[in-house]
Amino acid sequence: xxxxxxxxxxxxxxxxxxxxxxxxxxxxxxxxxxxxxxxxxxxxxxxxxxxxxxxxxxxxxxxxxxxxxxxxxxxxxxxxxxxxxxxxxxxxxxxxxxxxxxxxxxxxxxxxxxxxxxxxxxxxxxxxxxxxxxxxxxxxxxxxxxxxxxxxxxxxxxxxxxxxxxxxxxxxxxxxxxxxxxxxxxxxxxxxxxxxxxxxxxxxxxxxxxxxxxxxxxxxxxxxxxxxxxxxxxxxxxxxxxxxxxxxxxxxxxxxxxxxxxxxxxxxxxxxxxxxxxxxxxxxxxxxxxxxxxxxxxxxxxxxxxxxxxxxxxxxxxxxxxxxxxxxxxxxxxxxxxxxxxxxxxxxxxxxxxxxxxxxxxxxxxxxxxxxxxxxxxxxxxxxxxxxxxxxxxxxxxxxxxxxxxxxxxxxxxxxxxxxxxxxxxxxxxxxxxxxxx
Length: 438
Known about the structure:
With 438 residues, the protein is α/β, with parallel strands linked by helices. It has four domains: 3-81 and 188-204, 3-Layer(aba) Sandwich (Rossmann fold); 84-180, 3-Layer(aba) Sandwich (Rossmann fold); 207-341, Alpha-Beta Plaits (2-Layer Sandwich); 352-426, Winged helix-like DNA-binding domain superfamily/Winged helix DNA-binding domain (Arc Repressor Mutant, subunit A). Helix content is 41%, strand content 21%. It contains 16 helices and 17 strands. The strands form four sheets. A seven-stranded mixed sheet has the order 9-10-8-11-12-13-14. Strands 2-1-3-4 form a four-stranded parallel sheet, sandwiched between helices. β6, α7 and β7 (178-180) form a beta-alpha-beta unit. It is globular, with a radius of gyration of 29 Å.
């Protein structure tokens, strides 16, 4: 199936896309989404999100006008960048063709965001220029357009240079002499080729094999009747979410065979397993799910079994995932899932060996600290992330302390009453919980 690209652009850039549409037709299909004002970008994006494979947006200003919480990470966006080299080239052309042009009477609306342009900016008009990038986007854009028109009408400039195509109709309306800085045609082609490659990789990735290994936690091995009941429930769930995947009973488990794309739908991009929630509402026993992916179902099956062992080691119902690179994600019960690797980072493995604790436990602690954005954890924090008792967590923390990789501090948090609580400050992490470079 041909890739569909949504092209969000003002009318001033349409000639570029029309010029390469025929050349790109064997690779993709363009859906032109022209806008007359940057405020339209968000609505156009959301309206077309479900009907295209990716977006090309002509300029960072348009991209920034989309609320980041609205962005769908499964639908790539590539931006036609306002390359400062294009500005240098245009200015050089002006100096050659119009040697009498006074550089200080040129207004460049986006000069304030170009770092390497700082020495040259002193020669350009800056009256009313919106330098404060903390201003609201809408206010910045309105100020820039107003600058073009006001400075021209007050005869303070002889030329405006803009990178924003949606300014052009207003500049023409007020008779402003302007130059529109645009990417080269080759740059447009390159951007489109890049997003086509990314979408192609994502489509191939979504077809990778994924297996879910399911069981319920009971005192005795599950009976055939219990497995059959679990299989029926899984089948009902699949019908509810309109998936044609099938579940089978195999080696004392119910195994669900699906694709990576469907797995991401079921687990909200590997953050929250809706299948687990569905089963919990209908089964009184604890539910354990291990997901595994692979280039073929054999590898996915092996990883699903490994992930199920992780789920069994966790207290309560849970869902874990292991991919073909042995990266482990879980428990998928919230947006703050812990991630670690069964293979492990060499530095972390060496650190775990020095301390004398399990490498995976150390990875889990580090992942939890990064989620919490702190390097100060309590015994209760460690107990929660390792799914063990506070006594067991204290034993691990004591080992880290003996190796002088931790120091204890006493703090009050969240305006809590009573005495300060004891925390362990992990010295191999920074204050945001990220691993320090060695």
